[in-house]
Write a structure and sequence with these properties.
Blueprint (H helix, E strand, L loop, with lengths): L7 E3 L2 E3 L6 E5 L6 E6 L3 H19 L3 H17 L1 H12 L3 H26 L3 E4 L10 E9 L2 E5 L7 H12 L3 E4 L6 H14 L6 E3 L4 H9 L6 E5 L3 H8 L5 E4 L5 E4 L5 H13 L11 E5 H16 L18 H16 L3 E2 L5 E2 L2 E2 L2 E4 L16 E7 L2 H10 L2 E2 L1 E5 L3 H10 L4 E4 L12 E2 L1 E2 L2 E2 L1 E2 L1 H7 L1 E9 L9
Parallel strand pairs: 7-8, 7-10, 8-9, 10-11, 12-13, 12-20, 13-18, 17-18, 20-21
Antiparallel strand pairs: 1-2, 3-4, 5-6, 6-26, 11-24, 14-17, 15-16, 19-23, 22-25
Amino acid sequence: MENEVFKYYTEGEWKVSSSGNSVQVINPSTRKTQYKVQACSKEEVNKVIESARMAHKAWAKTPLWKRAELLHKAAVILKNHKKPIADCLVKEIAKPTKDALTEVLRSADLVSYCAEEGVRLLGKGDFLVSDSFPGNDRTKYCFTSKIPLGVVLAIPPFNYPVNLAVSKIAPALIAGNSLVLKPPTQGAVAALHMVHCFHLAGFPKGLISCVTGKGSEIGDFLTTHPGINCISFTGGDTGIAISKKAGMIPLQMELGGKDACIILEDADLDLAASSIVKGGFSYSGQRCTAVKLVLVIESVADALVKKVNEKLQKLTVGPPEDDCDITPVVTESSSNFIEALVMDARQKGATFCQEYRRDGNLIWPLLLDNVRSDMRIAWEEPFGPVLPVIRIKSIEEGIRHCNASNFGLQGCVFTKDINRAILISDAMEIGTVQINSAPARGPDHFPFQGLKDSGIGSQGITNSINMMTKVKSTVINLPTPSFSMG
């Protein structure tokens, strides 16, 4: 196992890269090499995309019910393989065991739901008549249907390498596309295990491929390849670079967030504090929908901060194998970035509610009170267990700060006044507003989208299926009747 290099997957086979090179997957807890994966070459990427293009042609003609049948089969196999996949997640991305198992089960459920939704959605078209438009007779009939795009490139992030892969794979496949998966380095082996489940389900050869390698070597080559017909990407700033370089193809981008939590003076503070701790610190804050900023009305700020701090004291900190609440963040560079934000806040006078503690990639949970807008932590996304609190004098001040961000993914409002909640939701320039709950991506059939630098397009099972298809019309032109229509 020590020297094993996991193979990449194409044309229904597991292959060794001709490059002779591998990429190391570092265990965030031990900071030592845990696994190695193939470093695929550009020539291999070319072959993968060509085989995906060929496989798509036959798959597009496969009946919907057959596509759905294979997806249901893959979902069952995923559930049966939950333990080995979860073990990889624990070692590759330091995800606590219980959360790792949940991710695999949620992914299997997503695949099944997607199969059902695809059959419903794609099994019907529209029928239009020409006499509904001014000046036209009833001489034309138009039938529309949804057809696949071709080859979909799926690029998931490290934090949910299985769930955010299948949220792209399942819609692509049910819609009749073929799929090339480029997993993140941290999470690559879990993704390969997941692809193995699709392999065991018996999908046609070449329909699903998984290429591993350094983004710096094959990333741009993949995302600008003329054989790719659609890109679905979840991640950070890289997505902005991809969207600038990609050709004239549909893009689905879910990027960063600085999800703000606005607490009004009439809020249920116990509910708000629980939601802030769960939303801000689960999986060590390494989620695009994590609470990343608390904007609290001054009159209740002391009470809220006290409640949050009491809950933070109860969080367990340590290795993911022990199911600790706070586990090491994914890389040393991430840890250093988080520390730089913390030191900037210290230098500018933020109140540290806990002592700042770090051991390697393990950072203890930290609440920063009295944060001001001249501090980096007020605007930048730490992607770690550090949460800033800004005290505000009015709702307007909170909305202004939220909308001044270059991000616009999610946010939340805590109040007992539903009218004010809806008005604040309308005013927040973000993709989703949660009322009296922390931001969250799921359930996976809900629409999920960001504004501004947080993304392009909308996800969620139905939206993804629609985005990975295009409308085709067939128009029947009737001749002038040679008989009386009376």
